[in-house]
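REVIEWER CHECKLIST
Item 1: Sequence provided? yes
Item 2: Single chain? yes
Item 3: Sequence as submitted:
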Amino acid sequence: MNMDEKQAMVRDVALQIILILIFIFTFLYMHGVPQRLLAKFRFRNRTSIQAKRHFVKGAQLLSQASRSNSTSLAKQALSEAEKSIALNPKDAASYILKAMALDLQGFRTSALDALDAALSPLASASLADAERADALLKRAELRIAASSQPRNVDSALADLKEAVKLSPKNAKAWCLLGECCEGNKMEEEAKKAYKEALELEPRLNTAQEALNRLASS
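Item 4: Structure as written out by the authors:
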């Protein structure tokens, strides 16, 4: 087979492939498949935008509620968070917003449930490492606040260890890890955590006072 015959064969094969693709597209178009896919994409995109609008509005309301200690504004922020979740249940940020709005109203158990949802496999993929660390830190704070049950403290300790692993420059997480270890009589681990916190924030008085206390005990 000479060069011209090879080129002719390649052209024939390419033409056959093009004709097959045209036939497939025509068949799908006649059955409305591309139109349905496009409509579905547009719906998802519109839903995502609406969810983000509710989240942004909720975040603004929560910020105002935090500054003014307003229960009314916190309730409005909660409502916006729930609307965002209904539209996009895979966005962890909306669950975190919900948790913070609930916590501001004093509903710690419900806030913990919302953080559990944010850190679940369904939603946690939407978080960057630093964001996930912040969520773990917040959950640990709530668990320690509700530490009447030993398992809450143990769970908080696990959250804090994971938080500093994901975000090793989070001084607040290191300091709280130190407090949690100290409370569990894990003095060496507490000292290490406090030292890490001080290296990141040398003016962190809580960590320095804790180290002085542990040194004199």
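Item 5: Key structural point noted by reviewer: The longest helix spans residues 33-68.
Item 6: Recommendation: ____
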